[in-house]
Amino acid sequence: MAVFRNRRLLSTNSNRKDNYLKAEEAEIPDVKLPSAEKLLVLGGNGFVGTHICREALERGLTVSSLSRSGRPSLQDSWADNVVWHQGDLLSPDSMKHALTGVNSVISCVGGFGSNSHMYKINGTANINAVRAAVEQGVKRFVYISAADFGLINYILRGYYAGKRATEKELTTKLPYGGVILRPGFIHGTRRVGQMKLPLSIIGAPLEMILQHAKLLTQIPLIGSLFIPPVGVTSVAKVAVTAATDSAFPPGIVDVYSILQHSQRKST
Ligand SMILES: NC(=O)c1ccc[n+]([C@@H]2O[C@H](COP(=O)([O-])OP(=O)(O)OC[C@H]3O[C@@H](n4cnc5c(N)ncnc54)[C@H](OP(=O)(O)O)[C@@H]3O)[C@@H](O)[C@H]2O)c1
């Protein structure tokens, strides 16, 4: 018998002594075969989206992305292994073709601007995506939302109203397969044109310190300033696990849970 685990082939053929695995030594076979999974990343050409595409490819998934501009300009070889669709979530019909045969969706679509624009991109566009995905029979949908930031919620009210409206739509339409990640600031290397911004120089040390200081977030008015930043590779890892592992619990995953899940071994 042959089983795959973490993309390694283990032989359990008892006729071959050299390959024989005693029951107590053998790892429990992983019944998931991730290569059969087809994942669509909405906004796969953005900061978080590119990291999610890479993480999913490394796990052997078939990966496609949809965004208004399609394939990003980066030359990295992994990008050749993603199917890049162009489409605008504000015109839901333009995403239908990208959903064919898709098992799970991760949405990284979001943005800033006027309050009405922020509501459209973080809310309307993603609500359209949830509805189209559910219509096409998608069973798992992960939405990259955002942690509450006290007073900032009021200043960016269109952004947060949009985020929460999408969360409500997702938990209503996909109560058992909708996962909402709520990171605070996400650090990593962000590309802006040809430039690379190393956000981890500040983000990583703050993450180290603040992940153990949850109590500080309860200080009135300024508590949310102590929400730990989280690395983009951690967000990507948890998002892909949430999208492909049916045992991953549905609902809201806060910053601290993102950090915890990211430290677990990937399947
Ligand atoms: N970065 C952070 O620190 C942070 C923190 C907390 C939460 N988040 C959330 O995480 C998500 C990803 O953030 P990010 O920093 O990776 O953002 P980003 O780099 O700006 O990526 C946004 C993506 O959305 C796509 N997009 C925008 N409008 C679209 C539309 N109408 N239809 C289809 N695609 C559209 C963009 O591609 P096109 O322009 O080609 O369409 C891009 O791929 C967002 O929802 C954001 O709110 C980010």
Automatic annotation (TrEMBL):
Q: Which domain of life is it from?
A: Eukaryota
- The entry's protein name is NAD(P)-binding domain-containing protein
**What Pfam family is a match, any one?**
NAD_binding_10
Q: Which segments does the entry list as coiled coil?
A: none
> Which residue intervals define the domain NAD(P)-binding in the entry?
43-187
The record's section on Gene3D superfamilies has: NAD(P)-binding Rossmann-like Domain
Q: Which SUPFAM superfamilies does the UniProt record give?
A: NAD(P)-binding Rossmann-fold domains
